[in-house]
């Protein structure tokens, strides 16, 4: 965090100055480690074993917050008799189909009922929930047939509040993590037992009624074949300790860019609509009613999905959207499968994807297995790149590595490349949504130079020109574009769309055009329009709430008048859990919101994340649905049962509980289970340039004996497009380098500031050598392990140039999010510079032969 988020890290240091303990868990000793009370080095890719060990410690030593988990989690829920855990099935859960590499989650449900997931894969049981047919292709398995929610059964799930029933979630959790002992953590992660126990003691001593512990993770934690389960493991631990919904608790994702949170809220993701509404799939006879029936939860605020969807459709299509035409629901695109970044690359290679827009992305060096990205772009008809500089994704056709090796010839590449210069954030108005869901408005400081334009300008005017060209068309296929409400005011010499007008549309308005102030006002009848339901209120009273800048010294510690947090300017989600079941703060020291019996309402320092007049003793009437079906002790209002899920009966494709699996490429066998890798990790169709490596005890695994991990530097940003062209930053970090321990340097003959060649089954790169004690060797599985650190900001263009670390990576993905595994992979390292041209291909080929690699290696379920 000190390295990658130095501005935010000042608050960690302020907390430390006031007595907080800072623990840093990272394979490398970094700037954060230097300022932490305790640095814990561990083997990259073993996070679930480490967190599972802490969970086991909490359960074994009864350090959990019992009153909290009994009241607010699904710990008392009793599971079906036919559920089988990894302990029963040698490392997999019941329902695994090895042929389709997928789970049927039927046996994961509670006894007595089934629940719909609040997020994740929610479409699995579409046919059962709608009694309709489906035309989704098998290619859509990961999206449409994942571990989504099933139809809600009659009645309530069975509960045992004594937590003693052998099939209750609490007891299942205890059995699942019983083998995650300090001894096993040491063997798997390389963390000495005394250091591990110190972590356990610090975390548990700082959790409970009077104290809370926060987890802050770098988004690299998601970049694993078990990425989602890494985060789930943290949420299991934080729920057991009572650290969710309370001040000083929670789990914070440290985003790699100022508005990554914003780009998932109003999504750049292929499978979501704004506000985390699922994108419809290509089901037969799917109308709006069927969509809502399939996707909405029976209880909780997702029960109001129709209001959110209809208001979104009204924002998109305005007067053209009416009850008579299902509010233009048919105009929405339909998913026919997973259309993630990497599957799009495979579609390019297959000649299916003909054109590609790159807005602020640099896959030629920034994506895993960068070679495949370039080969895919070389098979396009056209490519549009919008960026500040001539990044590698705009120039690969003339100077990319494949030109040097002879795999591509510039004169043979038929892709027509258009480069359009982009405006920087200082050159446009707009908002950033940061890690804590805070929308902060930034005002234009200067006009963009030359032909540079904002993304808003580009999208608006491209849409305007397309609509003009289609004017008068009688083709039904053109109606969704022609009927769009595309009437934004513009200003200035360049006709820049008014960003505040877009914010006002996102906020929403009523039938008279008045700004809405809360998502509670959204209606299912078409009388409200709202571009993103969770952002409703950001333009309340016609005022840009995101632009507020009241100094902290002029308000209380919650600072509710600094910018605006979604939803409803609420700073801590699920804050009903900060009070006990009777509505009283767990402790005065940690008071946030509480029930005021005299006023008959929830009050406190933050905006209550609960219906304001719902009393703690409220029991919903029989047959209630949506928010009305939640009781006064159901703080997790987006969940179908109002509870925090220690165990996930629906919504994940790879299991109801986090389990340790080795990374796709690993020098070690899985000591916990017979199952080596995540059995439902997403593997893309075989390609000669995406070979996987043998792992564990498999023959040939010793050819790649070291674990590598990629990371960021303070001086550079992401794939380098914003920093390698800046002379001062290029001077601060002038060359691509690798970090190795003195012991590994001696073992491999690597000289400090000299050159090293790093090889995987996908590619070879060279880097300057940084010999440093920051990369401490670990003892794993009884042998010495060395790890190699690789910053990933480089490429051949700009002032500071070098090979791209991502050349080394494979495409084995998390099955929920389709994100690549970049933080743990196996390599070999040798002294000297890498070979050039065809000789580089020959070296990689020689390694594959030595390791016995073919198209089947590493592809087992």
Task: Describe the structure concisely.
Belongs to the prokaryotic molybdopterin-containing oxidoreductase family. The chain is of the alpha/beta class and 861 residues long.
Protein traits:
861 residues, alpha/beta, Dimethylsulfoxide Reductase, domain 2, six-stranded mixed β-sheet, three-stranded parallel β-sheet, 24 helices, 24% helix, Formate_DH_Act, 4 iron, 4 sulfur cluster binding
Account of the protein in words:
- The protein is an alpha/beta fold and 861 residues long.
- It is built from 24 helices and 28 strands.
- The strands form 11 sheets. The chain has a 6-stranded mixed β-sheet.
- Helix 3 packs across helix 9 (193-205), helix 3 (47-60) packs parallel to helix 10 and helix 14 packs across helix 16 (370-377).
- The relative contact order is 0.13.
- Mean pLDDT is 94; it is low at 133-142 and 144-154.
Secondary structure layout:
Blueprint: H1 6-17, E1 23-25, H2 31-35, E2 38-40, H3 47-60, H4 66-72, E3 96-97, E4 102-103, H5 126-130, H6 141-144, H7 169-176, H8 182-189, H9 193-205, E5 215-218, H10 227-240, E6 251-254, H11 260-265, E7 272-273, E8 277-278, H12 288-295, H13 305-317, H14 341-349, E9 355-359, H15 363-366, H16 370-377, E10 382-387, H17 392-399, H18 401-405, E11 416-421, E12 430-433, E13 438-442, H19 455-470, H20 479-482, E14 490-491, E15 496-497, H21 499-507, E16 564-565, E17 593-596, E18 601-604, E19 682-683, E20 706-711, H22 727-732, E21 737-740, H23 742-748, E22 755-759, E23 764-771, E24 778-780, E25 783-785, E26 787-791, E27 812-813, E28 825-831, H24 838-851
Parallel strand pairs: 1-2, 5-6, 9-10, 10-11, 20-26, 21-23
Antiparallel strand pairs: 3-4, 7-8, 12-13, 13-16, 14-15, 17-18, 19-27, 20-28, 22-23, 22-28, 24-25
Helix pairs in contact: 3-8, 3-9, 3-10, 14-16
């Amino acid at each position: 965090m000190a390295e990658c988020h130095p501005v935010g890290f000042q608050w960690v240091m302020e907390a430390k100055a006031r007595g907080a303990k800072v623990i840093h868990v990272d394979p490398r000793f970094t700037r954060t480690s230097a300022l932490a009370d305790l640095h814990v080095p561990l083997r990259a890719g073993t996070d679930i074993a480490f967190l599972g060990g802490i969970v086991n410690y909490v359960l074994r030593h009864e350090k959990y917050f019992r009153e909290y988990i009994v009241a607010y989690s699904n710990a008392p829920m009793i599971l079906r008799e036919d559920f089988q855990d990894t302990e029963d099935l040698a490392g997999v859960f019941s329902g695994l189909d090895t042929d389709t590499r997928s789970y049927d989650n039927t046996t994961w449900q509670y006894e007595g009922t089934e629940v719909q997931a609040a997020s994740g894969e929610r479409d699995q049981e579409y046919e059962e929930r709608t009694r309709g047919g489906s035309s989704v292709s098998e290619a859509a398995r990961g999206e449409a047939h994942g571990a989504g929610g099933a139809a809600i059964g009659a009645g309530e799930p069975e509960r045992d509040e004594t937590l003693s029933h052998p099939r209750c979630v609490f007891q299942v959790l205890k059995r699942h993590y019983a083998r995650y002992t300090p001894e096993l953590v040491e063997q798997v992660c390389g963390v000495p037992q005394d250091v591990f126990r110190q972590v356990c003691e610090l975390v548990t001593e700082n959790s409970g009624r009077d104290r809370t512990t926060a987890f802050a993770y770098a988004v690299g934690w998601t970049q694993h074949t078990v990425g989602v389960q890494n985060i789930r493991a943290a949420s299991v631990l934080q729920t057991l300790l009572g650290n969710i919904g309370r001040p000083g608790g929670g789990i914070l994702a440290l985003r790699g860019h100022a508005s990554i949170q914003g780009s998932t809220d109003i999504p750049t993701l292929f499978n979501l609509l704004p506000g985390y509404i699922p994108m419809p799939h290509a089901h037969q006879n799917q109308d709006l009613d069927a969509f809502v029936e399939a996707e909405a939860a029976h209880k909780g605020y997702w029960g109001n999905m129709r209001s959110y969807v209809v208001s979104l459709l009204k924002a998109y299509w305005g007067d053209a959207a009416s009850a008579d035409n299902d509010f233009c629901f048919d105009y929405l695109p339909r998913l026919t499968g997973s259309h993630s970044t990497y599957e799009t690359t495979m579609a390019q290679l297959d000649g299916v994807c003909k054109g590609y827009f790159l807005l602020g992305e640099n896959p030629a060096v920034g994506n895993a297995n960068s070679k495949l990205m370039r080969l895919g772009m070389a098979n396009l008809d056209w490519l549009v790149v919008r960026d500040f500089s001539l990044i590698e994704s705009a120039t690969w056709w003339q100077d990319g590595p494949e030109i040097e090796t002879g795999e591509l010839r510039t004169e043979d590449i038929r892709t027509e490349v258009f480069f359009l210069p982009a405006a920087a954030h200082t050159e446009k108005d707009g908002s950033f949504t940061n890690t804590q869901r805070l929308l902060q408005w930034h005002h234009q400081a200067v006009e963009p130079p030359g032909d540079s334009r904002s993304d808003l300008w580009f999208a608006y005017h491209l849409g305007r020109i397309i609509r003009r060209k289609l004017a008068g068309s009688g083709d039904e296929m053109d109606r969704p574009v022609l009927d769009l409400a595309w009437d934004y005011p513009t200003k200035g010499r360049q006709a820049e769309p008014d960003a505040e007008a877009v914010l006002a549309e996102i906020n929403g308005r009523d039938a008279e055009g008045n700004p809405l102030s809360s998502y509670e006002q959204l209606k299912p009848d078409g009388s409200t329009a709202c571009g993103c339901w969770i952002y409703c209120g950001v333009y309340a009273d016609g005022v840009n709430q995101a632009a507020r800048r009241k100094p902290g010294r002029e308000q209380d510690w919650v600072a509710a008048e600094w910018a605006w947090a979604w939803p409803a300017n609420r700073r801590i989600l699920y804050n009903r859990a900060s009070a006990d079941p009777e509505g009283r703060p767990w402790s005065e020291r940690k008071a946030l919101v509480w029930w005021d019996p005299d006023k008959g309402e929830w009050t406190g320092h933050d905006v209550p994340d609960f219906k304001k007049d719902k009393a703690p003793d409220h029991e919903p009437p029989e047959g209630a649905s949506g928010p009305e079906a939640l009781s006064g002790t159901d703080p997790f209002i987006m969940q179908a049962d109002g509870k925090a899920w220690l165990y996930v009966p629906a919504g994940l494709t790879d299991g109801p509980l986090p389990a340790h699996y080795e990374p796709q490429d690993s020098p070690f066998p899985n000591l916990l289970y017979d199952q080596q890798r995540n059995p439902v990790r997403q593997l893309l169709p075989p390609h000669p340039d995406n070979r996987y490596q043998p792992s564990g005890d498999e023959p040939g695994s010793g050819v790649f004996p070291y674990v590598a991990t990629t990371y960021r530097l303070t001086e550079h940003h992401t794939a380098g497009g914003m920093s390698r062209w800046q002379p001062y930053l290029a001077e601060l970090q002038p060359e691509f380098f690798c970090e190795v321990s003195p012991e590994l340097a001696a073992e491999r003959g690597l000289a400090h500031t000299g050159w090293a060649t790093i090889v995987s089954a996908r590619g070879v790169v060279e880097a300057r050598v940084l010999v440093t004690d920051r990369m401490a060797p670990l003892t794993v599985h009884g042998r010495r392990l060395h790890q190699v650190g690789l910053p990933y900001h480089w490429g051949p263009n700009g002032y500071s140039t070098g090979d791209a670390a991502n050349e080394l990576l494979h495409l084995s993905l998390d099955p929920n999010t389709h994100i690549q595994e970049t933080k743990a992979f196996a390599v070999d390292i040798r002294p000297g510079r890498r070979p050039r041209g065809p000789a580089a291909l020959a070296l990689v080929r020689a390694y594959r032969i030595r390791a016995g690699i073919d198209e089947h290696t590493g592809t087992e379920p």
